[in-house]
Amino acid sequence: MLGIIGAGNISEAIIAGILKSKTLDCKNIVVSNYNQSKAEKLSLKYGVTAADNIEVIKKNSIILLAVKPYALINVLELYQNELADKVIVSVASGISINDMENVNKRLKIIRTMPNTPVQICKGVLAYVYGANIVENDKNIFKTIFSKLGMFIEIDESKIDAVSSLTGCSPAFIYQIIEAMSDAGVKMGLQRELAISLSAMAVQGSGGMVYNTEMHPAVLKDKVTSPAGSTIEGLAELESKGVRGAVISALYKAYEKTLLFSKK
Ligand SMILES: NC(=O)c1ccc[n+]([C@@H]2O[C@H](COP(=O)([O-])OP(=O)(O)OC[C@H]3O[C@@H](n4cnc5c(N)ncnc54)[C@H](OP(=O)(O)O)[C@@H]3O)[C@@H](O)[C@H]2O)c1
């Protein structure tokens, strides 16, 4: 049912998430890759079927194109006839629906922006429908992809912002977790424990913001007692300009994404 061209990082995350969410059985996922051994590795690990690109397209009604942005238009041009009646899901950053539909006006395109935590069904998957997508296509797409985390339809003009805020930020958060664990080790904790505690603190804090829908500043105030230890740490973060650094890191990522989009 789901064909995947490209057996790289994001494909693996999506396959793992779909199997975890039990929306598809591994027998219903077929994957191909330029270098076939990568598809075979996914086959061994997840029980999905490895095949070539043509077989992936012919055997499936919905095709995930998970190749690098520079390869995407080539793939669409090469297989445009075979892809004409399929639902095509692109994950490529910087390639617009218009760019893809310009290859062939009949193509049914859904442009998405997933992040790697889709692997544990805690990701974000933002999407935009192309002009030829009909209700039945939307239903198939939602059935397969909606359980990977936050599933949200957006305006295409916002996809580069979503990409830097959700696609790039996991790397930033991993760096913060690593730094937190360094602090734990400095305080005498074992590395493994320090990493687990830090990861859980980040997960729990994110969950509090997401589930309570309270403003992060209100939640912050609830942890901060007068003349206590938390305010000492917060003051240190402010004096080191952490807030400004976070804003500019995300904005730099956004600017780079915009540059890719214009190429
Ligand atoms: N990684 C992320 O966090 C993330 C998040 C959101 C979106 N994306 C998007 O996802 C796409 C893939 O990224 P990635 O990180 O997964 O890259 P990746 O690990 O390099 O995977 C891309 C795969 O596509 C294969 N490929 C290239 N041309 C092909 C073709 N003509 N036919 C079959 N397979 C082909 C490559 O095979 P070879 O290695 O054999 O060349 C490679 O295994 C990109 O467009 C990126 O913008 C990634």
From TrEMBL:
GO cellular component term, pick one: cytoplasm
Protein name: Pyrroline-5-carboxylate reductase
Amino-acid biosynthesis among keywords: yes
GO BP field: L-proline biosynthetic process
Catalytic reaction list: L-proline + NAD(+) = (S)-1-pyrroline-5-carboxylate + NADH + 2 H(+); L-proline + NADP(+) = (S)-1-pyrroline-5-carboxylate + NADPH + 2 H(+)
EC number: 1.5.1.2
Top-level enzyme category: oxidoreductase
Known role: Catalyzes the reduction of 1-pyrroline-5-carboxylate (PCA) to L-proline.
